[in-house]
Amino acid sequence: MIINLAENPKSITTSGYDVCIAGAGAAGITLAIYLGRAGKKVALLEGGDEEYTDQSMDMYKGKSTGIEYWGLDTCRLRYLGGTTNHWSGRCKPLDDVDFSARDFFGLPGWPISRGELAVFEAEAKTVLDIQKDFSAPDIPNWHSDKFIPDRMAKSAPTRFGTKFYDELAKSEHITLFINANLTDIRLDKDLSSVTEFVIKNYERKDYRFTGKNFIIALGAVENARLLLNCDSQAKNGIGNHSDFVGRCFMEHFNVDLGAFAGNKKYLEAAGTTSFYTSSAFSLEHKIGNGNVSMSVSSDPEVSGGRSRAVKKFIRDSICEWQALSELSRKFVYFHCPGDGVIGTLIEQSPNKESRITLDKETDSLGLRRVNLALRMNELDKKTIRTIAIELAKDFASNDFGRVHLAPYILDTTLEIPNRQHCHHMGTTRMAASAEYGVVDKDCKVFGTANLYVGGSSVFATSGGTNPTFTIVELALRLAQHLA
Amino acid sequence: MFSRRLFLRGLVSCFTSVGFVGLTLADNSSLPAQTQAPEFIIINGWVLLKSDLERV
Question: How many CB pairs under 8 A join A and B?
Answer without folding.
Answer: 78
